[in-house]
């Protein structure tokens, strides 16, 4: 089902159609619908903020942003955000997308769980994070009208237990590589789901380094 809300819709292009097909075939329905909502909420945020952005690149960033949580695209040692960014990079390169655009999407995905930085960067980088922060955390919930929220969720449902389901999806995607959560928000997920998890400590790492002073 194609949704158009406040002038925002999925780009009508072969690239966007190929992205939709790949993500739908690779991710769970939970992640597919979440990623789709991230696109719409990110694009609507762009409209609200009067930002100029390329909808195709935003769509690529939004739809690939959680690809690193899937077994097919999860590496042994990289943060899941980097795995998703790498998957998007490889996909876009294979279709001849210019390097600058590939780099923008890579950056948008890799930084989407790093608060305080994306909003100062390229609009696509800022808006992928804006979409994630709206759908997962509801940080800008009042900035969207009831009509906007309802239209997006009607087409891409959250379900009755999205909050717990998305936390579980994060956990399932990162639990085998806990070291990748050092210094980022996924350490909260592991601490919530695994009572044996011990957080890395920045000060302990400094004090335990090889330097003598």
Secondary structure topology:
Elements: E1 4-5, E2 8-9, H1 14-26, H2 29-48, H3 55-64, H4 80-94, H5 99-110, H6 123-137, H7 146-155, H8 162-174, H9 186-193, H10 202-207
Antiparallel strand pairs: 1-2
Helix pairs in contact: 1-3, 2-3, 2-6, 2-7, 3-5, 3-6, 4-5, 5-6, 8-9
Characterize the structure shown.
There is one protein chain. With about 210 residues, the chain is mainly alpha-helical. The protein has a single domain (about 5-175), classed as Orthogonal Bundle (Hypothetical protein af1432), CATH 1.10.3210. About 55% of the residues lie in helices and about 0% in strands. The chain contains 10 helices and 2 strands; from the N terminus they run ββαααααααααα. It has helices at about 15-25, 30-50, 55-65, 80-95, 100-110, 125-135, 145-155, 160-175, 185-195, 200-205, and strands at about 5, 10. Strands 1-2 form a two-stranded antiparallel ribbon. A hairpin with a 2-residue loop joins β1 (about 5) and β2 (about 10). α5 packs parallel to α6. The chain is globular and about 60 Å long. The model has no long low-confidence stretch (mean pLDDT about 95).
């Amino acid at each position: 089902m194609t949704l158009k809300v406040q002038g925002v819709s999925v780009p009508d292009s072969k690239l966007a159609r190929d992205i939709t097909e790949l993500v739908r075939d690779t991710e769970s329905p939970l992640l597919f619908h979440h990623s789709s909502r991230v696109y719409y909420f990110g694009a609507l945020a762009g409209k609200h903020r009067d930002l100029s952005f390329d909808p195709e690149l935003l769509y690529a960033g939004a739809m690939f942003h959680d690809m690193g949580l899937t077994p097919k695209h999860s590496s042994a040692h990289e943060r899941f955000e980097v795995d998703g960014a790498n998957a998007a990079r490889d996909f876009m390169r294979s279709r001849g997308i210019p390097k600058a655009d590939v780099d923008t999407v890579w950056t948008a995905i890799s930084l989407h769980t790093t608060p305080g930085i994306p909003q100062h960067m390229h609009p696509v980088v800022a808006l992928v994070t804006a979409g994630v922060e709206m759908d997962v955390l509801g940080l800008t919930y009042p900035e969207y009208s009831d009509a906007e929220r309802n239209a997006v969720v009607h087409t891409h449902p959250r379900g009755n237990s999205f909050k717990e389901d998305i936390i579980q999806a994060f956990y399932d995607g990162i639990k085998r590589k806990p070291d990748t959560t050092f210094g980022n928000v996924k350490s909260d997920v592991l601490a919530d789901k695994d009572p044996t998890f011990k957080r890395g400590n920045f000060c302990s790492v400094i004090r335990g380094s090889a330097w003598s002073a």
